[in-house]
UniProtKB/TrEMBL annotation:
Residues 1-25 form the signal peptide. One of its GO terms (cellular component) is plasma membrane. It comes from Luteibacter yeojuensis. Gene3D superfamilies: 3.30.70.270, Tetratricopeptide repeat domain. NCBIfam families: GGDEF. This is diguanylate cyclase. Its cofactor is Mg(2+). Its EC number is 2.7.7.65. InterPro entries: Diguanylate_Cyclase, GGDEF_dom, Nucleotide_cyclase, Rev_trsase/Diguanyl_cyclase, TPR-like_helical_dom_sf. Residues 450-583 form the GGDEF domain.
Length: 596
C-alpha cells in the first residue's frame, strides 16, 4: 500500500488538456487571466515544483476575484500540493471540498483520485472505497482523457489491493486501450502486470510486459518501469527461479536510488534478499534483507519488511546463531501478522462498502416503486384510490409478515449453521468443520504450490484432571488452553477440536521449520499459563505432533495420520514436547478421521 504515496501521484500530476500560454499569477486580475494562471500552475506542478508553489501563493491572494470554478481549481491544486509534501490532514480537507462541491465533474474526479490515494496511504480503507464508488459514478460523465486515465489507475490499484483482481484488470486494460495523447502503454501495463501477479494468474512473463518495460524506459517513466521490473523479479522468485530474479533486479538496484523512491527500493531489496537466500549466498541475503527492513515505511509492517525479517531469521538460523534467529523470528511473526491483518482490513472494507452501496440502491429502487404506485393511484377515481389503498395496506401487512418470517427463519438458519460448525464448549471449529475448512485450504495450496503443515496436540493427563477435580474444572482447562492458543495463531490458521482433549491446527503457507517453531510456541504458552483462575496450582501441559505437506502431500487424512504418529512419539518420550512427523509415523490403528 505504501508504494501509492508518490507512485500514484505521478499519474495524478497530469494537468487538464487544452492549456495554452504562460500567464504570471501576479497579473491574474480577470477571470481569463486567473484561469490561464491556474492552468499553467497545473501544468508545471510536477516538473517545476518551486515555481508551482510560488504561483499558488500568488493565486491565493486573488481568491476574492475568482468564480466558483476557478476557486475549485485552486482548491484542488492546493490539496494536491499538501498531499505531495506529506501534509495529509490539510490535503484531505481541501480535496474533500473539491470532490463534494466543485461545479466541474472533471475537477471532482481528479480530486477524488488524489483523495483515494491519500486515504489508501493512511490505511483508511473504508473511506477510500466510499470515495472510489463516488468516482465510479462520476466517470461516465467525464470525457477528459487525462482525468479518466489518472482515475482508472487509482481504481485499479485500490481494487487490486483488496483482492478484486478482475475489476483491477479491467481498469488497467482500459488504461492501455484508451491512453491519452502523450501517454503510452507503460502505466496501464504496470497496473495490469501487478494485478495479475498478485492474483497468481501469471504462468510466464509475456513479451508484452518486456515491451512495456522498454517503453517506460524510453519515455522516462522510470517509476513505472522499475515497478514492472520489481514485479518480474517477484514472479521469478515465486516460481523458484532465484537466479533469474537476481539477473533482472541486481543491475538496476543502485540506479533506483537516483529517483529517491524508498518504498520501491525496499521491494527490490526484499526480493533480492530472498533470491540470494535461495542461492545460499548468505552474505548478500543478509545485506539486502537489512536494507529492505531499513527502507520500509517506519512504524508500518509492509511486505518488504516482513520478507526482510524472514530472510534474516533463516540466515541466522543457518549460521547457528540461535539468539539472533529467535529475535528475528519474533519480528517476522509480528510483521507477518500485521501485514495479513492489513490485507484483511482492505478486503473487509471493500465488502462493507459494497454492501452499503447495494443497500442504498435497494432503497432507491424501493422508493421508485413506491412513487410509481402513488402515481398510478392518483390517476384513479376516489373509489378506485380507496380500494387500491386498502389493497396496498393489506399487501404491505402481508409483506411485513413475510419479511418477519423470512428474517426469523434466516436468523434461525444462521444460528443452526454456527452451532453445526462450532464446538459448543470452546467456540472453535468442530471436527467436521475443521476437516471441511482444512481440505479447502489444502486444495488451494496444492494448486498454488504452497506448502502447509498440521499440528496435532492433546492435553497431558487430562483424564486425571477430570477424575481429581471434576468435569467443570476440566471444561475450564479446555477453554483456557484454547484461549491461550488463539492468541498465538494467525487469522488464516484453521483451529479445531477433534474430540475430548485433542486439537488440530492447519497452518497454510508454512514450512516444517516454521510449523515446529509455532508448535513450540503453543506448547510454551500452554505450560506457562495457569490452567484455570480458580485452580492456579493446577499445571497443564500438552504434547504435539507436526506433519508437513513436503513429506506427506496435500491429503488431510495422510497429514493427520503422520501428525498422530508424531504425537504418540511425543507422549512416549515423556510428554510436554514437540515431535516432527515422517513417513514412519503411521500408527498401527487407523486415525479416527478416516471415517469422515
Amino acid at each position: 500500500m505504501q508504494r501509492w504515496a508518490r507512485h500514484a501521484l505521478f499519474l495524478l500530476a497530469m494537468p487538464l488538456a487544452g492549456v495554452v500560454g504562460i500567464v504570471h499569477a501576479a497579473s491574474a486580475t480577470t477571470p481569463a487571466r486567473i484561469s490561464a494562471a491556474l492552468d499553467k500552475a497545473d501544468q508545471i506542478k510536477h516538473s517545476d515544483f518551486d515555481t508551482f508553489t510560488r504561483m499558488l501563493q500568488e493565486l491565493e491572494q486573488q481568491r476574492g476575484s475568482m468564480d466558483d470554478l476557478a476557486a475549485s481549481h485552486l482548491g484542488f491544486l492546493e490539496g494536491w500540493r499538501a498531499t505531495w509534501v506529506g501534509d495529509y490532514e490539510k490535503g484531505r480537507g481541501l480535496l474533500e471540498s473539491v470532490a463534494d462541491a466543485s461545479p466541474d465533474n472533471v475537477l471532482r474526479v481528479r480530486a477524488l483520485a488524489t483523495l483515494i490515494n491519500l486515504l489508501g496511504v493512511a490505511h483508511r480503507y473504508e473511506d477510500a472505497f466510499r470515495r472510489l464508488n463516488q468516482m465510479q459514478e462520476l466517470l461516465p460523465s467525464v470525457r477528459d482523457p487525462r482525468a479518466r486515465f489518472a482515475a482508472l489507475g487509482e481504481a485499479s490499484q485500490l481494487l487490486s489491493s483488496a483482492g478484486q483482481f478482475d475489476a483491477a484488470e479491467a481498469y488497467a486494460k482500459e488504461m492501455v486501450t484508451n491512453a491519452p495523447e502523450g501517454e503510452t502503454e507503460c502505466k496501464g501495463m504496470q497496473h495490469l502486470l501487478r494485478a495479475r501477479r498478485e492474483a497468481n494468474r501469471l504462468t510466464t512473463i509475456d513479451p508484452i510486459y518486456l515491451k512495456a518495460l522498454a517503453t517506460c524506459e524510453a519515455t522516462g517513466d522510470t517509476v513505472f518501469g522499475e515497478t514492472i521490473r520489481a514485479d518480474i523479479g517477484a514472479f521469478y522468485l515465486a516460481h523458484k527461479q532465484p537466479r533469474q530474479a537476481i539477473d533482472v533486479l541486481a543491475p538496476h538496484r543502485d540506479n533506483l536510488r537516483n529517483i529517491n523512491y524508498a518504498t520501491l527500493l525496499a521491494e527490490f531489496d526484499a526480493t533480492l534478499a530472498s533470491a540470494y537466500l535461495a542461492q545460499d549466498d548468505l552474505a548478500n541475503a543478509r545485506r539486502f534483507a537489512l536494507s529492505a527492513v531499513a527502507g520500509s515505511v517506519r512504524d508500518e509492517f509492509t511486505d518488504p519488511r516482513r520478507m526482510g525479517y524472514k530472510v534474516l531469521f533463516e540466515v541466522e538460523q543457518r549460521l547457528g546463531d540461535a539468539q539472533a534467529a529467535l529475535d528475528y523470528h519474533e519480528k517476522y511473526m509480528a510483521a507477518d501478522k500485521a501485514y495479513l491483518d492489513d490485507i484483511s482490513a482492505r478486503s473487509l472494507a471493500f465488502q462493507l462498502v459494497d454492501q452499503q452501496v447495494l443497500a442504498r440502491k435497494s432503497e432507491v429502487d424501493t422508493l421508485n416503486k413506491q412513487n410509481e404506485i402513488l402515481r398510478l393511484s392518483n390517476a384513479l377515481d376516489r373509489k378506485e384510490v380507496e380500494t387500491g389503498r386498502l389493497w396496498i395496506f393489506v399487501l404491505g401487512l402481508s409483506l411485513v409478515g413475510i419479511v418477519a418470517i423470512v428474517l426469523r427463519l434466516r436468523r434461525s438458519q444462521l444460528r443452526f449453521m454456527r452451532m453445526a460448525r462450532r464446538d459448543g464448549l470452546t467456540g472453535i471449529c468442530n471436527r467436521e468443520h475443521f476437516v471441511e475448512q482444512s481440505e479447502r485450504v489444502l486444495a488451494y495450496g496444492a494448486r498454488s504450490d504452497r506448502g502447509a503443515c498440521v499440528i496435532l496436540f492433546d492435553l497431558d493427563h487430562f483424564k486425571n484432571v477430570n477424575d481429581t477435580w471434576g468435569h467443570a474444572v476440566g471444561d475450564e482447562v479446555l477453554k483456557r488452553a484454547v484461549d491461550v492458543c488463539r492468541r498465538a495463531l494467525h487469522a488464516c490458521d484453521v483451529f479445531g477440536r477433534l474430540g475430548g482433549e485433542e486439537f488440530a491446527v492447519l497452518l497454510p503457507d508454512c514450512s516444517p521449520a516454521q510449523a515446529r517453531a509455532r508448535a513450540e510456541q503453543l506448547r510454551l504458552s500452554i505450560s506457562a499459563t495457569s490452567a484455570t483462575p480458580s485452580r492456579p496450582e493446577l499445571v497443564v501441559t500438552a504434547s504435539f505432533g507436526v506433519a508437513s505437506t513436503l513429506q506427506c502431500g496435500f491429503e488431510l487424512h495422510r497429514l493427520l495420520v503422520v501428525a498422530d504418529g508424531a504425537l504418540y512419539r511425543a507422549k512416549r518420550s515423556g510428554r510436554n514436547c514437540v515431535f516432527m512427523g515422517d513417513s514412519g509415523d503411521i500408527p498401527d490403528s487407523p486415525y479416527p478421521v478416516a471415517a469422515t
